[in-house]
Amino acid sequence: MWLKAWHIIAMVTWFAALFYLPRLFVYHAMSDDQTSIERFKVMERKLFYGIMQPAGIATLVLGFWMLWDYAWLAFGQMVWLHIKLMLIALLVGYHLWCWKLVKDFAADRNRRGHVWFRFFNEVPVLFLIAIVLLASVKPFGLIGS
């Protein structure tokens, strides 16, 4: 149960950063004065490297540890878990895309407007809903409930 608790804590922290970093991108894309632009660069860098990256890694390590300890024997029968892992792989892709955007903003290479980032900001919500439902409800009467 300790492993699961720490996994949930890491996941909540990771998602908090996944929700906040794109919101910073919205404000950064709207900024036109150098002081604000530099401030957002610092905030984005600290959030990504200080919170989002460690929390994402901890979530994945603890999750795969639980997979190894508890679900490995029945892994082939748990369709819900296969779907969840696919969504997590896509979420890691979103995380890496955020990393690229942090680097683009840091180098003053952003070419997207604040409206695009407002839509980009909503993507983690969809992942959170789907992943939590799969992990807690284990829908479709699938084995491993």
Verbal overview:
The protein has 145 residues and is mainly alpha-helical. It has a domain at 2-73 and 97-121. The chain is built from 5 helices and no strands. It has helices spanning 2-30, 34-71, 79-106, 114-120, 123-137. Helix 1 packs parallel to helix 3 (79-106). It is elongated.
Entry summary:
This protein is an all-alpha fold. The protein starts with a helix and ends in an 8-residue tail after the last helix. It has a domain at 2-73 and 97-121.
Map the helices and strands.
Layout lengths: L1 H29 L3 H38 L7 H28 L7 H7 L2 H15 L8
Helix pairs in contact: 1-2, 1-3, 1-4, 2-3, 3-5
Helix-strand category: mainly alpha
Average pLDDT rating: 92
User: How large a portion of the residues is in β-strands, by DSSP E?
Assistant: under 5%
Q: Spans with pLDDT under 50 lasting ≥5 residues?
A: none
Separation of termini? Answer: 17 Å
What's the total count of β strands? 0
What structural keywords apply?
145 residues, mainly alpha, 5 helices, elongated
